[in-house]
Batch of 4 targets.
Target 1
Amino acid sequence: MNRLAPALGLIGLFTLPALAATPLASQRATYALNLTRVRGHAVTGATGRLQFNVTTTCHAYTVAQRMTLLIRNENGVLSRTTSDYDTWENLQGTRFSFLYRETNGQTTKTVSQGTATMGPNGGSVVYTAPKPHIVKLPKGTLFPMEHTTAFLHAAAKGQSFFDPPLFDGTSVRGADHTFVAILQRRKPRRSKFHQLSKLASVAVDIGFFHRAAHDNGPDFRNQMRYYTNGVARDIRLDFGGFVMRGALQHLQLPPDECQQKPVSADQAEPSHTHG
């Protein structure tokens, strides 16, 4: 869910709890999406739903994300788009596999699929869809869950921004630049989701930039509030022509898979051969 302004200022002088060697929590989160702003006249209405599921084991994160949007255009025509994004990422941040599909009406297409590896001096992506090709990744590129962990570490150290390259598998061009503005830090406070009431949180604004572009504007931008276990609330998704806000409706934090069911070190990486 990493593809989700002036600084809002910091509240309090405190440090987020240290996250060293602590994987992000398994979660089952559902968000209601509602239109908050339109630019131009192409979109006159939109609503949607986002489901974000993470399973954390002793060795890897498995993520399944589904977003469904119902959009009304200026002629009153409704269109339904569903995106399915499935990934596997080892905890060391060195291996990553991905499958990203979009469904419009009755037509489903694979936007991108493949595997990526990273080492100390860079890495590469081997795409198998939509057509086979290989793209190099620059030194310091992070995969999605590692990216989230890294900016939470940056927040814990009091940094105000964080700007590594990111590869998330949602395009065929390789890594993008990201700029994460770390904004409003917040001490634990009561929440209707009791699992979050004892956790500190931080608001972030993330811009995604095409590495080959020369303009200053992001291709995509999102804002959200992250808790120290990796759960997000108050999501704002800026698609350019319109903006949607995501409200957390349901949240489950399953038991730690690493403690409940140890996974052998030679567990095979998902192949994502379906689709």
Target 2
Amino acid sequence: MSDLSRWTDRVALVTGASAGIGEAIAVRLVHEGMRVVGCARRLDRMAHLRARLGARFTPVQADLRDPDAIDDLFDSLDARGLSPAVLVNNAGLARKDSLLDGTREGWREMFDVNVLALCQCTQRAVRGMRANGDDGAVVHISSMAAHRVPVGGNSVYAATKFAVRALTEGLRQELYAAGSAVRVSAVSPGLVETEFPAVYHGSAAAAALAAADFPILHPADVADAVAWILSQPAHVQVHDVLLRPRRQPN
């Protein structure tokens, strides 16, 4: 069992919390005693979480493609006494914009959300953590695509996740050089049962045709990995958790 008692009543910010992995992480951290701020573009999609989790869950609206919206989000949290001790950078997306056939707009959206928003959220959250006792944790929800370019996959999406892999190590080095106790980790899942395939393929029907013919990960599996990371003692640095279905071939 994970022991997250050191985080009891402290604030976690989970981006992309309206469904899938982000929703599962929010639920798990509330159940572990944390106060969770869930961030998503569509506020209405988090109403069910508010009803289920009560006052320990605070939904907030922000479009992470907009850098001003990110600054407004963190300014608002600071003003409300909700500066996060834990940041889970879960928000991410993929578009069917390959290197040969894609558009600059599609590439830009993937980099804006998967890389630049992650950088800006991390910078603002770590700044607050260091100002509030220099104690906190950043967890990036990355992908197995950060470790290999999937055959037949989208190389531009993979490039964004390779960037997350580099940023994880880069932040670790920067925090070490600064003498900070804030830690950074990543979780790199393979195939997970979420809305992600439907968004990528453009419809649930198209996603179903491309679905794997073996059991894939559940969002709760990824939430378990995040809880395990946060349960580690202060002297332990978990760098990256690679998590794939047993029957996923690559």
Target 3
Amino acid sequence: MAKVLITGGTGLIGRALCKLLLAQKVEVVVLSTQWTVSHKNPKLQYVYWNPKERFIDPDFTIEGVGIINLAGAGVAEKRWTPNRKQEIMDSRTQSLQTLYDAICSGQIQATNMVSASAIGYYAESDRLLHEEDAPDNSFLSSTCSLWEKEAVRFRALGIPTAIARVGIVLSKEGGALQEFLKPLRLGIAGIPGNGKQIMSWIHIEDIARMFLYLLETPSNETFNAVADNPASANALFDAILHMKRGLKIPIPKIALELALGEMSIEILKSAQVSNQKIRHHGFQCQYPTIERAIQNLLQ
């Protein structure tokens, strides 16, 4: 892979992907909503775009590039007001629509694409969930369905487009793990609800490697981007407390509902998602268990 174009390249996964690609001497172009971004790597280029306006800097063109689409407003960054929910949905669909227009006009000539989705696609279930399982009518599920529908349109242009439904990404650079660690500054590990809900997670290094793997093995398939072994919230915090001192304290469901509103549904939802398909496709996680992942991240 000689050239890769990334949307959402300044986010948690995007930063890890840029680091991985640049280490392999791959030329990386990041579509950014900032006009100028300072950096010193000659293999890295930032190009201005504004998906709300369907705009990409008209002076920019590129050929023979693989696309990794990660763009979208952070789901857990703000309370889900009606306006925020619309922003979360629009940011995902408008980004893909802008890429689609750029490809149709010839501004971007793509070889293939990998587009992010999320395991929020799935309904709560006590059984193992696979790619062919149906979504439900929740906000995140509806968002993921529209997100994927926009990505699938690229296949009709002759561009192989894989979809990766990303689980809870664990990283020491931000995201869910940092939120879990914050109360530990006070010696407290706040367990959401009863802690029995299953969380389908993935180590930051594995998700970056998985996106690159899917880009290097083009397909028109959908894959669950999670680790081999989903874990309960209790198991996750046990792994954290093996590395950090603290006392486990349950956070009642009603407290989460008051603090987070509708978002609390996702925090308390149990979703045991299988990565069997990507493993059979040939990808192997370096961190298949929660214990190994947390040890690596917190050692």
Target 4
Amino acid sequence: MRCIHKLSTVAIAAVALGAAGGRADAQSLHGSKASVNLMYTSARGKALDFLRTPDAVYKAAMAGELKLISITDDLDLGHVAFPFVLPATLRFADSLAKAYHAGCGERLVVTSGTRPLDEQPPNASPLSVHPTGMAIDFRKASDACRAWMRKNLLALEDRHVIEATEEMHPPHFHVAVLRQSTELHPSTVLAAQSAAKSGAASTSTAAGDVASGPDTYVVQRGDNLWTIARRHNTTTFRLQQINHLESSDLKPGQVLKLR
């Protein structure tokens, strides 16, 4: 890649001011200046190019520096203008999609990949790493899948694999893959998902599913509210109330509060 973005003096100053704050709080996906700075400094530290034009993105893809995001049984594409990302980001997305599909029963949908500087939206940060191809955006789906994503993205942040932010306008999960090397094998993602999290009520299994804790239950195939309520000495009404369920429909992998 040859088109390198030269940041303005203001943007560089923002990095300098935020450097003292360290990495973002690993217990939240709300985003912060420290999180943005971490993503940007990681990209600069790896000498990644900030591609300015669509033509530069296509040239990088033709040269094999960016990889095409392919639709699979686990992963789908939304309206993605430039469905290309760096190789390690693609490996991460494919691995996450497989675990996500197994964990909450839905395909993971990509809404943005590499986005050149000339195509950035008005509200984009001047430090955005989308022009490098290290970042990828995922659509927010059902409540159960949102909970799965929050839990597992936080686990991956704790292992310094990624830096993630839950965005509201439009609603999506923004993920920058920090490990842009061959060390990011799919097993890295699954290992992070199965790692124990301090203070958490449950952990992820190697398949990416969330394990039940004393106050939670993970819906299995064939379950319904009545059988779950009976098994845990509660009522269907109580389960609907504390889980804010608008219907009795459940999906495998969905996490229910029991208390």
